[in-house]
Amino acid sequence: MNKVLFLLIFLCVQVGFAQQITVLDVDTREPIGNVAIYNNDHTKTALTDFDGKVNLSIFKSEERITFRHLSYQLRKSTPGQIRRHGNRFFFGHESRRA
């Protein structure tokens, strides 16, 4: 009985952490805070914390989501794609034009 309980708790914890991702700068690999994440019709939103972490459990696995930050180029992805890439999402800087 203890083994079954342990396995159940372990699986629940793993599912909870599997939804958490980290948003990182593509050049420096530093975490990016205050990145807005939302779905196409803006009915679901999330915001990264100071360490660039955010929980995407409110979004469906294949739901198209947008990542927006003032200093970075707008990007779109799905939670499923991000999970397949190690729960890390890399953000590139907005291109500078003369």
| Overall pLDDT metric | 86
Strand order in the largest sheet: 3-2-5-6
Q: Please give the largest β-sheet.
A: 4 strands, antiparallel
Given the helix and strand composition, which structural class is it?
alpha+beta
Describe the model.
By secondary structure, this protein is of the alpha+beta class. It is 23% helix and 28% strand. The protein has 2 helices and 7 strands, in the order H-E-E-E-E-E-E-H-E. Strands 3-2-5-6 form a 4-stranded antiparallel beta sheet. A 3-stranded mixed beta sheet has the order 4-1-7. Strand 5 and strand 6 form a beta hairpin. The chain is globular. The termini are far apart. Mean pLDDT is 86; it is low at 13-17.
Offer a concise description of the structure:
The chain is built from two helices and seven strands, in the order αββββββαβ. With 98 residues, it is of the alpha+beta class.
